[in-house]
Specification:
The complex is a heterodimer.
Chain A: E1 5-7, E2 10-13, E3 19-24, E4 31-38, E5 42-50, E6 53-57, E7 64-68, E8 74-78, E9 87-94, E10 104-105, E11 109-113
Parallel strand pairs in A: 2-11
Antiparallel strand pairs in A: 1-3, 3-8, 4-5, 4-9, 5-6, 7-8, 9-10, 9-11
Chain B: E1 4-7, E2 10-14, E3 19-25, E4 32-38, E5 45-51, E6 56-59, E7 62-67, E8 72-77, E9 86-94, E10 97-100, E11 104-109
Parallel strand pairs in B: 2-11
Antiparallel strand pairs in B: 1-3, 3-8, 4-5, 4-9, 6-7, 7-8, 9-10, 9-11
The chains are: A mainly beta, B mainly beta.
């Protein structure tokens, strides 16, 4: 157990819908990362937050958005869902968000868009 | 570029043999190189990492080597066991994020 929690574990929804994925970082970690893992694209970095502020952005679609709250938990919002959005979504956390720091991954949310 | 090239994509070895996975990168700003192990349906777990001021690091049966001049780093697993079977990802850290390789499916045959 990494100490990073994610809910829900599984999510099944229809195209066009909107979902919210939730992540709580390890105790003491200020930085949260979101990754998407699909069979064809591998592990793709989406976005990073540090202490409530967006710090780095990857290949995140405009239909996706995220935020980190004052209690440091983070939410990833996916809207206008398409079949291709079906994937495993991981959250990771680290102490202060430096690129040299160990990132600890949560168990992931498996999203299936039908 | 930002990509990390990882080879091979699949690797099958006999129990007790060694396994080597190699990754190359092109961004000179990279200074952190972790390796993650992911079992089917589970989260990636860090198994070893190396920072740019070190050329080699070892932890029991696992070792990582880094050649910053040539921009490549490798994972070495000795005396492989069936429980080592998993997908292994290399990554490089720069600009506040990790960029992952495509992964290597390692199968250790009893």
């Amino acid at each position: 157990d990494s100490g990073v929690t994610q809910t829900p574990k599984h999510l099944i929804t229809a195209t066009g819908q909107r979902v919210t994925l939730r992540c709580s970082p390890r105790s003491g970690d200020l930085s949260v990362y979101w990754y998407q893992q699909s069979l064809d694209q591998g592990l793709q970095f989406l976005i990073q937050y540090y202490n409530g502020e967006e710090r780095a952005k990857g290949n995140i679609l405009e239909r996706f958005s995220a935020q980190q709250f004052p209690d440091l938990h983070s939410e990833l919002n996916l809207s206008s869902l398409e079949l291709g959005d079906s994937a495993l979504y991981f959250c990771a956390s680290s102490t202060s968000g430096g690129a040299w720091e160990t990132q600890y991954f949560g168990p992931g949310t498996r999203l299936l868009v039908l | 570029g930002e990509n990390v090239e990882q080879h091979p994509s699949t690797l099958s070895v006999q129990e007790g043999d060694s396994a080597v996975i190699k990754c190359t990168y092109s961004d000179s700003a990279s200074n952190y190189f972790p390796w993650y192990k992911q079992e089917l349906g589970k989260r990636p777990q860090l198994i070893i990492d190396i920072r740019s001021n070190v050329g080699e690091k070892k932890d029991q049966r696992i070792a990582v080597t880094l050649n910053k001049t040539a921009k490549h780093f490798s994972l070495h697993i000795t005396e492989t066991q069936p429980e080592d079977s998993a997908v292994y990802f290399c990554a490089r850290g720069s600009n506040y994020k990790l960029t992952f390789g495509k992964g290597t499916l390692l199968t250790v045959n009893p």
